[in-house]
Design goal:
- The chain folds into two domains: about 160 residues, 2-Layer Sandwich (Gyrase A, domain 2); about 40 residues.
- With about 250 residues, the chain is an alpha+beta fold.
- Helices cover about 40% and strands about 10% of the residues.
């Protein structure tokens, strides 16, 4: 059984400051050489970023990139993951890598029952045995992989700009999202907050970050216990259209 592991492996140097510099170019007569003036003050960087969020002007966030490495994610979750745009992905190949002893992910609902997990484990052992027989019989890896289960653990490197991460986090940290990708999203959010605390200060599901819920009748009702007026970024909209600095 494989457990989820996530690492932040690369990111734009000083991402908060990078976004603030891009924003300053939009709103001041500063030259390129002057963009970093007075941005050694954390409070000033935070003020600029909060201003951008309050205005829904998020294109400056696209100048900061973050790359994460993910291990122990099932193929079920990875299929959801790669639907997200805009992003870059590199996933461990089942065509080129042997999977005779593949790791796998066990859903908590199955792990909660020793009887059900025993049956689940037995099913996956049979998949391993069939995969091995196919390979020993001369079947290529690209064809033997057809018997691999969706529980098979995979590894992925994933890159996004900050704006794209914020949108993805809104969707995937919601209680209505699938448990595995929600766990991944919460882990990534924590890593991003450590290196870019101002950019990701309001990262989270819409209910806790902006004071509204997209789920309608399917809402988990978490929004009912939130003081919307106390949220500092309740007017922000990550999907806001703002292709230009001038917000024309």
């Amino acid at each position: 059984m494989k457990t989820l592991q996530v690492q932040l492996i690369r990111y734009t140097e000083d991402p908060d400051k990078t976004v603030a510099m891009a924003a300053r170019l939009c709103y001041s007569p500063s030259t390129i050489d002057q963009l970093s003036d007075n941005l050694d003050e954390e409070a000033e960087v935070g003020r600029i970023i909060k201003m951008l969020v309050d205005r829904g002007h998020l294109s400056p966030f696209e100048h900061a990139y973050f790359t994460v490495g993910i291990e122990g994610l099932s193929r079920v979750a990875s299929h959801q993951l790669v639907r997200s745009r805009i992003a870059s992905y590199s996933q461990q190949s089942q065509r080129y890598i042997e999977h005779r002893d593949f790791d796998y992910v066990v859903p908590p609902s199955i792990a909660a029952s020793s009887e059900l997990q025993e049956e689940f484990d037995a099913h996956l052992r049979r998949s391993r045995q069939l995969y091995r027989r196919l390979r020993e019989g001369g079947v290529a890896k690209e064809d033997a992989r057809f018997v691999l289960p969706q529980a098979t653990a995979s590894s992925i490197v994933m890159s996004k700009n900050a704006r794209a991460w914020l949108e993805w986090i809104q969707l995937r940290t919601c209680n209505r999202s699938q448990w595995e990708i929600r766990q991944l999203a919460r882990s990534i959010t924590q890593l991003l907050k450590e290196v870019a605390p101002h950019i990701f200060a309001f990262a989270g599901p819409p209910c806790v970050s902006q004071g509204f819920c997209r789920e309608g009748d399917d809402s988990c009702s978490r929004i009912d216990g939130i003081d919307v007026d106390s949220l500092p970024f309740k007017t922000a909209t990550v999907r806001q259209q703002d292709s230009t600095c001038s917000e024309e």
